[in-house]
Amino acid sequence: MNIAHIAYEPGVLRLLDQTKLPGAIEFLELRDWQSIARAIAAMNVRGAPAIGITGAYGMAIAARQHAAARDFLKQMAGAAHGLANARPTAVNLSWAVTALLEDVLTRFESGEQAGAIVEAVERAARKIHEDDIETCRRIGDAGSKLIPTDSEVLTHCNTGGLATGGYGTALGIIRSAWRDGRLKRVLVGETRPLLQGARLTAWELRQDGIPHALITDSMAAHFMRHRRVQAVVVGADRIARNGDVANKIGTYGLAVLARAHGIPFIVAAPTSSFDPVNATGESIPIEERDPDEVTRFGGVSIAPEATEALNPAFDITPAEYVTAIVSEHGAVRPPYEDAISALFGSGEAAAAMP
Length: 354
Known about the structure:
The protein contains 12 helices and 16 strands.
């Protein structure tokens, strides 16, 4: 993907509006943290790593907004709260925002001037962005080794450059597997109700020239039964200490199907998506979105008027259904609690711990 979908200049954050894809390429130019929080909530930008990066830039903009305020720390704390709560499930957002708020507090208490703090927050936000791109390449290269040669791989939602700083997590594995000659084709689940697979993943794969076919979510079992899927590769919005995975709604169903058909189910995520504070997935908050996303599409009603709809944005896949979890530190396998504890015990990983 050659489009800079997240770009920052002092005081201005430029975001590719993902709600308009694939029909139009339009950018938002945001100049205050409140509009950035709204863009995250409205899914103009989405994907756990991408909203973490966006939240970090939101803190940089907030620092510029309030640099002259007498209650600077109070304003920054308010911005951090508003940004972190724009979407509750993906831990990357709160991780990035909290890290920058803590840095602001430390610098303020040490006597740094507001102007210097603003520049420090901007540097830190850019580093989060740059680090994520390198992290995704490492995830892709590590995960490629898990893909059998001449595979058709099924993926769900969008986990590519649009969902990250660049390259992607699960789609990063797919990109590396294609580069390495392991991949024959990608089956792209449409990902109802907002069709991130159909609108975004298919768009990215087409740009990259990677062979792919779009399928409805309900077709997955059919293709698995007929041996048309050699691996399922998905991302994660949050991973609990025991390896339970919160990801886009529909992920759990794919994991159950993969287990029933003896197909590897691989999860790709940076360490910023791990949440060792939560022992299991049961305590991960699940975002409930507007029911109109289910009953309407593109402004057109697809259900009878007054139809009740439920719209959880994520589900929890129990660790027992996950074959491997791939981070920038490589692949880990069950038992995940031991593996994740060891991962966060290392110096580099511990520094990334939410």
